[in-house]
Amino acid sequence: MSTVSLSNHQDRLGVLVCGHGSRNRLALEEFEHLCLKLRSRFEGIPLEYGFLEFARPTLTNALDQLKSNSVNKVIAVPAMLFAAGHAKNDIPSLLNKYSRENQIDIQYGRELGVNNYMINAASERIKETIRLAPKVSLSDTLLAVIGRGSSDPDANSNVSKITRVLVEGFGFGWGETLYSGVTFPLVEPGLRHIVRLGFKRIIVFPYFLFSGVLVSRIKHHSQKVSEEYPDIEFLNAGYLSDQSFVIDTFEERIFEVINGNPAMNCSLCKYRSNLIGFEPEVGLAQKSHHHHVEGLTESCSLCDRECTGLCQESENLSLNVDQANHSHHDHFHHYPYPHSDHPLGPRTLKKNDDENERN
What we know:
Number of strands: 10
């Protein structure tokens, strides 16, 4: 997409990119680089970024900066692959509060979601991996796409859609969708089921924007399973990062708001529709669960570049992926995930920890 100019717009527009935040410095650097690339697409338009937790600037800091730059209309877009709790509750709750208290118009865009740009971004990462190991045919290859995992089935199902489009696009022999936390199947138990299918090669693709403990954990569990099955070739594809197609999607989301058609998909939102198994959550109040850690800058001293995951193990925080990164949420009214005790879900992490302690 080409560089654009909106400086003649009747409002003094500003753009806010809303990130989650991380303890990992590399993840924060990658997010900043992405925002710098996006900023270059918008001449004369102030573009700031902020985080929900564990990093600065906070979303409030970024909004203050835009306001000081005489912005009277903010276009806020969530830097989230799919719409789950952060995009549906935490970010809009904070934005609504700021808008009320500061009399500034804030219009909210949608998550990156599933579009041709994001499919192309994913395919580029997979192509890079295949080029390094071209000997095994695609029909003998299984693609395992690893999503973040959420308590929102709508977000989880979108990862499966990404998997299917990639499998058909490349012509892989098979495809499976796994998750790094919260839901099921998780990476290690999922891979143990996958190896039974008998494929010669498995490509493990973390469908993540940035580095961090979850991406490192995916590699760790993949390596653990691969060592037990030396006859199967395991390849780890790179995550999305600031790939140009990802930047294109952010630009598209911003223009959707400007043009008045952000096209939110609410048909399968668990807060609006009676999704089977999630009926009690219909109509729950929109509230943020991050206000108590907004601006907290608890960086990891062990990870100068790529996240090692060692801090999680040394602090014995790996009982649950969600607990490892968001244990503070337990006391802030998160609705319980109905399948948290699934045999292929989060409890498998605790089982592995117990086994490691015995060994």
